[in-house]
Amino acid sequence: MNDSSLYRYSHHISLPQVTRIGQQKLTQSRVLIVGLGGLGSPVALYLAAAGIGQLVLVDGDQVDLSNLQRQIVHNTAQIGQDKVISAQTQLQALNPEIQIITYSYRLEPEALQQLITSVDIVVDCSDNFTTRFAINAACVRHGTPLVSAAVQRWSGQVTVFLPAYSQSPCYACLYPNQAEEGETCSETGILAPVAGIVGSIQAVEVIKVLLNIGESLCGKLLLLDTYTLQWRTLKLPKDPACLVCSSVNFIREIR
Ligand SMILES: [Zn+2]
Questions:
Q1: Where is the signal peptide (predicted)?
Q2: What are the catalytic residues?
Q3: Which of 33, 90, 128, 242 has its CA 20 to 30 A from that of 100?
């Protein structure tokens, strides 16, 4: 790290759990962010500012006026632009030291699998169940850590899956019925800063997993109700009958 980088990240380096070694590790890390909307915005901004060396951005949508109420990585002048390009402009201005790779289309499962093998961790900031299940299946298959979250109205939830560990649950353990289609925030509404709070927690979890420090949300589901401002943490055990992760671990055990 040169003098400018040391100064840029000095408030990280001062943390005894991070130090110069940890910051160096962050600058060598590769993080995939799927979805550059309400959650993806704070995730991408904080991870770019934190100096993650390479951010891979995936989103097939364009910036719409109604996005700007909460999707703070985009701005009014960028309405109509691909979200990944709009985000890249902001992130690169915030931190020119990092590399940003963009995919301005929805990735087919095979392309997603391939991409997931090349990153250290995946952040699911998508807004639909089909994408979430596809990301989960690919992460389980390749043992890639996954930070998952969802928000709607005044509420949010966050959890972490570490599929390389046999005790870790996966997204399908949480939602065993894959056919269940949830509502998206465009249908139900969402208070703007709720996405900011929950996305910021995702960014914290990414950094902790990358540095292997602290206590992650693996095996736990953090629930936030901002209307009453109450946090709850539920246990999220692995489902031994899970169709996605139980068979993978079985295969690993018999090898
Ligand atoms: Zn599972």
A1: none
A2: 185
A3: 128
